[in-house]
User: What shape does this take?
Amino acid sequence: MSEVDIPKRKEKCENCTKKCNKKQSDDDANSHQDREEVNGQVHEGSQLLLSACLSCDGCLSEEESLKISQQSLEEVERVLALNKKCDVSKHKVLVASVCPQSLPFFAVKFGVDITEAAHKLCGFLKSLGVQYVFDSTLAAGFSILESQKEFVQRFRRRHHDSNALPMFTSSCPGWIRYSERVLGSLVTPHICTARSPQQIMGCLVKDYFSTQQKLRPEKVYHVLVAPCFDKKLEAVREEFYNSLLETRDVDCVLTSGEIYYLMEQRKVSVEELDSVPLDHVLGEAGDVALLRHEGRGSEGFLEHVFKHAAKELFGLDVHEITYKTLRNRDFQEVTLERDGETLLQFAAVYGFRNIQTLVHRMRKGRVPYQLVEVLSCPGGNARPHGFKWTLISQLQLEILLLTSAGGA
Assistant: This one.
C-alpha cells in the first residue's frame, strides 16, 4: 500500500464522518434501523455509504479526480473509435475481465441464469469491438491462496509480533482507503498484503496474456466489469501503474450499471444478443463452465482461509461453516472449537456502521478475532455500491444466488 501524500489533498470537511458518528449513536438506540439497512429498505438519506464518504471532493486530490474521470464509458468508446481509424499504430487490443459479483445484476436484468448472463454479456462486449472477455474468478483463486499463506504465517508469529493479528482482508478498496486515510497505523499493519483479484487479473492480462499474444502491455487496453464504483479508486492507485511502459494493470473499471446503460443507449435488447462463451486467460481450450468460490456475498476469503487454517494449523477438516449473527446480519462470526477450547475465531463485518463498531473495539483492544473479512458495502459484495438496486429486489437476487449455488 502506498503512503498518502497529505499536502496534495484538498482540505477535508469531515462532515460525512460526523454524520456517520451521529447515526451510529442513533442506531444503537434504535435497532429497527439495523433491520432496515440489512433488508435494503432504507429511505434516501438514512444510510451513509463508505464509498460516498471517501470519494467525495473533500477526500480526493485534484490528480485523483482527473484519473477517476478517465474511468468512464467515454474513455472506452474513445479507444474503440481509434481502433476503427486507419492509423494502425494507435490501435489497441481490447480485453474485458468480468468480476463474478457483477453477473447477478445482468442475470436479473436479462431474466436468465448467471452462466447465460455471462455469455450474453460477452456477446454484447464483443459486438462493441472487445476482442477477449475473461472471467476473473481465476484471479480470485490466486488472491485467496496468497491470503491463506499469509494468515498461517501471521498466526505462527502472533506471540512475538503485535501487528500479526487480527488480519484484515484487503480486497475492498473502500475499506483500504478508509484505513489509510482515517485509521492509519491502528489498522494498516494488520491488512493482508495479498493483491486483490482485480489487480491480479490486471497482472495476468498485462503480463502473461500480452506475452502469449506477442503484444506490448501498453498495446492492450484492459477493461474490468465490476459491481462497485470503489474499484475505480483501486485501479488508479500509483502502485498499479507501470511508469516505464506508461500503462496500468487495469486501464478502466466500468460498473454493471454503466454497461447496462450503454446497452440501453444503443437500444440493444437481450433477445438479439448472441450467447458467446467467455475466453480463457491461460489459453485453455473448450467452453469451461464458470467456477465460483463459496462465500457470503464475497469471493469467499473468510471461508477459504478458515478451512485452510483449520487443516494447516490444527489438522482439522472443516466441511461446513456456521455463521453466528451478532449485532445484525452484516456482523457475524465463525469459530473453530476442539474439546471446549476456541482455536479460531473469524468475523465478517460489512457496512460502514459495523466497521465503525469494529474500529471502536480495536481502539479498546477488544477484538478477539484472528481474521476479519471487511467490506464497506452493507450486505457485502451481494449488494455493492454501483448496482441499480431500485431496479432489482433483494428477493430476486437471493433466489438467483441460491439457484446458482445449487447448480455449482
Remarks:
- The chain has a mean pLDDT of 78.
- Residues 143 and 195 are 6 Å apart (CA to CA).
